UniProtKB/TrEMBL annotation:
It comes from the Bacteria. Keywords: Aminotransferase, Transferase. Its EC number is 2.6.1.85. CDD domains: GATase1_2. The keyword Transit peptide does not apply. This is Para-aminobenzoate synthase, amidotransferase component. It comes from Candidatus Burkholderia verschuerenii. Residues 47-64 have a biased composition (Low complexity).
Amino acid sequence: MSNDANPSGTSAGAGGNDPRRGGADSAASGVSQDGAPKRPAAAPPISEANPTAPPETAAQASAPGPKASASERASTDAPSSASNVEAADLQQARADDAREARAVAASATAAQEAAVRAKAPPPVDARASLAQNLEAATEAEAATDVDIDTLTVVEEPATVSPAPKGFPPEISAVPDFGALNPPQMPPHQQPGAQPQHAYMKQSDSTWSVFGRVIAARARQIFDRAGQRMTQRTLRIGVSARIFHPEPGAKGLRGKTLQYLEESIAHWVMSRDVLVFMIPTVGHQGMLHTSNIRLRDYAKHLDGLLLQGGADVSPQSYEEVTTRPEWPGDRVRDMYELELLHEFIESGKPVLGVCRGCQLINVAFGGTLYGDIATDMPTAGIHVNEQYDQHRHSIRFPDGSSLVNMFPNNRDALVNSIHHQAVRTVGRDLNIEAVSAEDGIIEAVRYRKAPFVVGVQWHPEFHRAGGDELLDCTPLLDTFLRVARETRF
């Protein structure tokens, strides 16, 4: 062989005579020395026990086999993947994965559609169904078809029912219900008549209808006014106590004051009514004049309560005072006497307390004891330094209206804070209560009015529902009930 055929520059004979060379060549060519093909030796596995394995052997062991998936074949986790995986192999792997995913989705969709078709009812042919319906209708019509020419009408003779015995002969014939005989219509319903309203009568005129409309409106106004009056809270007026200026004093003591005691107002308001103190009126005042009169208060208030306070002046019942330190209050007497007169004239109820009881008696011509201890030495004690804590017994005589107010208390215990008392009873007054010890008059009532009552004790100082002193709530309730009844 020439040198051109052997580029390595080594002769064939030299190479063939070297036994080591021949073995290596034989191993490299995969042919044994006897000419038969030789199986390559298996490479030892790469493991932690054989860390000295050559890199080529490790790469071959880690390379994916022919049965691996496309993703495994395209994996770059192996160190030799960068050298033994080409771009064409990666694209082919992705295409294979996409085909597999589409195949799985198609099979799942086909299974779902098959399940739905299995549950759905079988399809109906609309044309076949319509033809069947028409055929059934035709058969039914043929079954009920009747030849009109073969029909014959049989007329039955009319029978006349005999008339009952006792009826006139003109009703023996059968009535002709086909005859036109309508009932007569009222004149306002006949054709051409003007329509008549339901609230009108045939004899109504324009003025009569107008009068009824005005009357209906007036009733509506009165009803509304009555509702407002009945639902309005009661308004009770209380007469004022008067503090007269002291000679030479300055400040409030040098002024005229008008006031009321707190307990009397709270006692009345305990029944949820309004309380108004009625001041004196001064139409001839030195600083300010007014046209308001006490009758205006009687007109707008529902009742009057005369509270206690100063003595009634002896001049008011035409007597002379026995002691100069008890002159009484003539100014207040004149003011309250006029106030009492206006409320009685208005038909409004009046309740007098202590001094108010004495004033009611004086207003009707009665007289008073100026001082019980002086004018009636044998009488019991009706006032002392204990003031409202002093008490004594009273009783209700026959004919007293207080018996009905207090049915379970013919005798009662009340406070006593007065040194004046009723002496002679005024005209048309009834004795309602007397002192159980000495017979001093303790309550009076005017017989010619719905409610004009005076009591000598102070009911505002009695506790409601108390065990000892008389509970005067029935007295207040009766006064307010009459106020509601007479305020219209």
